[in-house]
Amino acid sequence: MSPTDAPYPQVLFRNRKPDRIATLEEYRQSGGYEALQTALNNLTPQTVRQQILEAMLQGRGGAAFPTGRKLMTVADDAPRPRYLVCNADEMEPGTFKDRVLIHADPHLLIEGMTLTAFAEGACHGVIFIRPEYESAARILERETGVARRAGLLGADILGSGFDFDIVVHRSGGRYICGEGSAQLNALMGRRPNPKQPPPYPTEKGLWGQPTVLQNVETLACVAPIIRNGPEWFKALALTETGAGTKIFCVSGKVRKPGCFELPMGVPLREIIETHAGGMLPGSEFKACLPGGASTRFLPREFYDLPMDFESLRQAGHRLGTGAIMVFDHKTCLVAATLNLMTFFTRESCGWCTPCREGLPYIRDLLERIEDGRGEPEFIAMLQAMAAHLWKAYCAFAPGAASPLESLLTYFEDEVQAHIRLGRCPFRGR
Amino acid sequence: MLPTSLTEALKAEVAAAAHPRELVVDVMLALQAQVGYLSDEAVAAAAELLRMTPLEIEELATFYTFIYREPVGRYVIHVCDSVICWMNGADSLAAHLSRRLGIAMGETTPDGLFTLLPVCCIGYCDRSPAILVNQRVYGPLTPESLDALLERLKSRGQETAAAEAVP
Predict the structure, then answer these.
(1) ipTM
(2) Could you identify which of A82, A161, A327, A402 might form a hypothetical disulfide with A210, taking C-beta atoms 3.0 to 4.6 angstroms apart as the criterion?
(3) CATH topology of domain A237-328
(4) From the CB of residue A385, how many other CB atoms can be counted at a distance below 10 Å?
């Protein structure tokens, strides 16, 4: 969808074009780098942090942690140098919003990072990016150069005395690198195992220095917040519980898969039926994963649920990354969950036992059920093993348990049918 | 033998880095680019450059999806097999590729042109079913468009091989 036919304000996609990135000139014409100029001339880092906090900006990478609060955990007298890491690893299945965002308007990210670094007192910025996004990595390398030559990055930004620069760091490619503490290990050339706090990265992160880690989309929200104010940002949402816009990336059994910037709190029904063009001909909505492979299946009864972090939380669900994967009535959810568990089994970093051992066990049980070799007691075994995943070292294993647990909550009939019939009821249909 | 120009360039990069170890993936990728995969010689060279042990390099090399410790073809084809591509027929696409190339997942064609590997979600679910060829994305694919792509790659690969054979 081009921004002009969108019924809602386009903040992150305001410069989105069908075939190329917005140039620095185009970004500036749309008001880009005004917020940075204002902040460096007239605002203190404390004010910038306060505005981000008041805007109720929450992490768009899946965890929904309040960005302002994270920035405030870096003490004013914390040691220097401090680091800002932009997580562009985006390896959550179904998620491709950060790729589209970087390809649309890279300077929105660069300005957002510079403002966030100013608020944090960081002078080093790193963009950690997955190898599948090589074209995005090259765009960022080129455009940070463009910004540097324009005096918007590097030493003495806009004559303010503030120094900040950004390097692009390529990953070797592994799901666990998207986890914050594992990503810091990867950046330091260590095996990317997760690490449990304390100390928190904001105290001792990269190279033992205070480090703030934020997702691409979260950082892209910062410049619009500083330019237009927290109240404006909050009012972009359709719900009281939400704030700002959200990039929903929709895939699966819809007519128009893609990325749509919509207000927080937009109903699921509207996203699927209006923006993603509705279900494919001959397909009926059965369920979706609302925010990547680490969220719970949302069945039809949630079709009118407002899509913001808090509304989903209250319904016992998670918005995650906002990557909506749509399944239709002809798709076997046991087989879909088996595919997800195969993903998690392969990508488990192997650091801790519940994840390394629990996932293959779950995968094996699901494979037997799907192949018609399931036994009635498998359901209780799956439930017990899913509970063990919550004891893992990082949040990725509980994430892996989410689709499985919700399969058993909402679609136990479907699992039972496999066991009772001794075959997948969807095969050969 | 690794070209001296490359090792000298990497040495300079490492010397200029505040924390040399942060370059380990870059160094492995640069060495890998020489012959397509990270040879034992390249592991030893990376270890020496970064003042790490070969075992530390090995630990990282075998952990990452895009570092290859075995020879690969000129074109490394990664077939996404995660949930959206699965739903859109990734299995039959992979079977089609295997048949056309005469190799299974994880194998390389005898002419050294193609290697076939499965990969987790590549972040192109809007273009599903999708594959990567040397990190470049293609999708949505049908068996027909896949055949056309293979033909293009084959003729380009043979041309480059011929050009390289000229002294």
Answers:
(1) 0.95
(2) A82
(3) Ubiquitin-like (UB roll) (3.10.20)
(4) 18
